[in-house]
Amino acid sequence: MGKRLLMFPLPFQGHHTPMLQLAEILHSKGFSISIIHTHFNSPNSANHPQFSFYPIPNSLFKDEDCSADHVVEFLNMLNKECVLPFTDLLSQILSENNVATEDEEPVACLITDALWHFTQALADSFKLPRIVLRTSNLASFLSFNSLYLLKEKGYLSAQGSQFEAPPPELSPLKVKDIPLLCVSDPEAAYELVSKLLEKTKASRGVIFNSFEELEPSSLATFRKDISVPIFVVGPFHKQVSASSSSLLAQDSSCISWLNSQSPKSVLYVSFGSIAAVNEAEFVEIAWGLANSKQPFLWAIRPGLVRGHDGPAPLPNGFLDEVADRGLVITWAPQVEVLRHPAIGGFWTHNGWNSTLESISEGIPMFCLPCFADQMANARYVTDLWRVGLRIEDEINRKDIDKAIRRLMLEKEGREIAERVACLKEKADLCIAEGGSSYKSLDNLVAHILSF
Ligand code: UDX
User: Fold this and answer.
1) What UniProt keywords apply to this chain's record, in alphabetical order (predicted)?
2) Which fold has domain 253-428?
3) In whole angstroms, what is the distance from residue 124 CA to residue 19 CA?
4) Among 8, 151, 225, 246, which is most buried by a count of CB atoms within 10 Å?
């Protein structure tokens, strides 16, 4: 008989998607899957008929402010408010499971997002093994792990030019890339990250959506410094069917537009589900794109521009200017877009999912990181893997125009494309039989079955 896994995603696109993808991967290995979720940003169960879904019985979090500027406070609040209803639900699921008929699979473990730190104490009290999914890459997890050291050395209170300094402990990161320094409330973030670390270390294993060949030295450091079993089994999106875990409706009409464009000519522009820019930056982005004269597909989701919950107001004259070469939509089928032969570059905020999707589809990046792990991801993209470029200073249309041309038209862009093609090849190999992620997934399955 198979075993059942209880999986608890964090209700944000960048966390929800990899958890649902991991669920699909583990389902293909014979596990039955139950997804526990909040009402806020709840998954569409119709897209996953093979799973069972358990909403946490409350109606909280419907209208909360979970914008980029308040995300840390929101996460701290979620970890407090969910304790009681989650405990009740878990206890109900486990007691139904105990009295279940013979053909009900026993629950093997709970798999939660690492940011659901409150669940570790609960899992312990139910004697239920807990494994965490950390949806960032290993490198930014390790930068969290160095926080005590960084605080002690004064990096977290750095000022002025100190921001540009590279702390030797975190090479190639600079002080300004440390994830905690780019949030509005560093103390609240410090508390959140400390709990994430403590409870991840108390778990029975941690899963990463990355691959060994991309982060070999981070993996070695993790194994040396942290005693929790680690499973690096990504890229997830290359191991699952196209079933959607998107929380917003994806506009697939852009694919027929892409079909009419020349190979590698289009810059895809999207800043993920939560990053936000102010109005002045938005105007510079729009005119930088227009002035570059390159074809582009731009996904502008509601909320991208601070102060505008609905569609953002494009500058006057912009749509006329780009009518022959640009398409603006609300939300893209991103992986399908990145796989399209017309795409030659991705202007991204460097959320980890977008970064990994771009690398493993072989697409060069133009980086505009906004907060949290995005700064570290962008640094790795530009300085270590050298598969993208970036404007370090405040963005303006002139520099954007220049950067887009460098990426899409010049020798520098072609060299970047060659390097990212090599990484794509490694991503393809690691999930093939005998590859590093393939083997790590087998180890994960054996680990779960040993509980
Ligand atoms: C957040 C954080 O910002 C990120 O730094 C962290 O690593 C994960 O959580 P988000 O900002 O949404 O995520 O970015 P990202 O991690 O890139 O995830 C976005 C997901 O939405 C990707 O899987 C992407 O394919 C999808 N997407 C994005 C779409 O389907 N359509 C779009 O138009 C844009």
Assistant:
1) Transferase
2) Rossmann fold (3.40.50)
3) 22
4) 8
- Please tell me whether residue 141 adopts helix, strand or coil conformation: helix
| CATH architecture, domain defined by 4-243+433-449 | 3-Layer(aba) Sandwich (3.40)
Say how many CA atoms lie within 13 Å of 326 toward its Cβ: 22
Q: Measured from the CB, is residue 137 less than 6 Å from ligand 1?
A: no
Q: Name the residue of 297, 353, 380 to mutate for ligand 1: max ligand atoms within 8 A of Cβ.
A: 353
Q: Is the CB of 322 under 6 A from ligand 1?
A: no
Calculate the alpha carbon distances from 12 to 8, 225, 276 in Å: 12, 29, 15
pLDDT (mean) for 166-194: 78
- Whether 253-428 and 4-243+433-449 are alike in CATH topology: the answer is yes
| Residue 270 CB–ligand 1 contact under 6 Å | yes
Nearest 5 degrees, angle CA 289-CA 273-CA 217? 90
Report the alpha-carbon distance of residue 75 to residue 81 in Å, rounded: 10
Q: Convert the pLDDT of each residue in 362-399 to its tens digit.
A: 999 999 999 889 999 999 999 999 999 999 888 999 99
Distance CA 332, CA 395 (A): 24
Q: For residue 11, is the peptide bond before it cis, meaning its omega torsion is within 30 degrees of 0?
A: no
Is residue 351 within 8 Å of 276, Cβ to Cβ?
no
CB-based contact 139:376 (threshold 8 Å): yes
Residue 191 pLDDT: 87
pLDDT band for 186, please (50, 70, 90 cuts): confident
